[in-house]
Amino acid sequence: MRIASWGHAVFAATMITLGIMGLIKGDFTPIWLPVPKGVPAREVLAYLCAFTSLVPGIGLFWQRTAAVASRVLLGFLLAWLLLLDVPHLFLDPGMELTWAACQTAVMVAAAWVLYVWFAGDRDAQRLGFATGDRGLRIARALYGLALIPFGIAHFTYIERTTSMVPGWLPWHLAWAYFFGCTFIAAGVAVLIGVYARLAATLSVLQLGMFTLLVWVPILVAGPSASDWSEFVVSWALTAAAWVVADSYRGLPWLAASSRERAA
Question: Would you call 162 exposed, middle or buried from its count of C-beta atoms within 10 A (0-12, 13-18, 19+)?
Answer without folding.
Answer: middle
